[in-house]
Amino acid sequence: MELFLFKHQEYERLYNCTNLVIDSIPIENRRLTIEALINLILGIIYFLLYLPCLYSIWKQHWKNDCYTILLYIGIVDLVALLIIGFLHPILALQGAVFCSYPTLIFLAGTLANFVWVAESSANLVLALNRCLQMFFRTIAEFLFKGIRIFVWLLFCTLYALYCMFFIKPILFSGIYFAWFFYPFVGYREDYGEFIFDSLPTYHNFILAVLSPAIYLIFAIALLIKNQKYKQTTNLNNGNTHFSISHLERMVLLQVFVISLLNTTQCVFYIIMQYTATQQKWMSILAEFLWFHIHGIPPIIYLTLNKTIRNDCLHLYKIIRNNKVQQVNTILVQPAVPVNNQTRI
């Protein structure tokens, strides 16, 4: 974004489409119709399902710092779905590449930088929050209680804004049904003076390592703590043992599934940037992984979170009853009174 706003001459030099002929690659090789339609249909479904889930999370967020993070992630996900769930398949159906709509794709790419960094960073905070909350509540309260949770989210936002303004954006290519930092992928093999930013690769690598590391550390902590409680029970000849509530297990499972998707996508996207031109299937798979990271949460919530599921059902019943009431009102409208003075 910095190039586009403040260094436009440099932007024109690096992203100049003057000598590129889009149709030198036939439209049939730039358009993946089936994949695009699946993406678009799922995008609509995910977006519509996310809205009531986000309403439920908003109702609960003041009770639990976990829901505050989920609310932040949910808002970011909705913005991401506008790009990866709607704009992406529409561009794919047209067989578009960067030079088809350079300004639109460049600006969408800068926003995509923001939502990916914001979501993945907040997801890492969420994983840390959940694990600490379950095993080390004192530390969790010290780090996340009250206004402190908003400090974490502010950091995620500022970091994402930095990547949005100062990191080169990812750019759509219908040839590979994916987004790349290089604007002319598939057309020019020589990158010339185009320099790739290293921060996105570092970000994805750190995320891919830290996310599973957090769960591994706390899985070990769980085993040690459980073993300690068993030993204490044996010494006291009691039947008390360390346990995690069903609600806590379900919340941890939700966070784990989302984090697993993030980790897998990070690994694929690092590989994809270097091998996608040889492995087209990998770019398509990585793109659908990215799409589902932002779209699958409502499915996870409705499946595993009873509170959100009940809120959504309640909201659905309210909407349905209002529609039925409106229809009944229309059907039972009183007849127009006949004027007694009217004569035939």
Automatic annotation (TrEMBL):
Hydrolase recorded as keyword: no
Domain of life: Eukaryota
S-adenosyl-L-methionine recorded as keyword: no
Residue intervals passing through the bilayer: 36-57, 69-92, 104-128, 149-182, 202-224, 251-272, 284-304
InterPro entries: 7TM_GPCR_serpentine_rcpt_Srt
SUPFAM superfamilies: Family A G protein-coupled receptor-like (SSF81321)
Listed Pfam families: 7TM_GPCR_Srt
UniProt KW keywords: Membrane, Transmembrane, Transmembrane helix
Gene3D superfamilies the UniProt entry points to: Rhodopsin 7-helix transmembrane proteins
Name this protein carries in UniProt: Uncharacterized protein
Species for this entry: Meloidogyne enterolobii (Root-knot nematode worm)
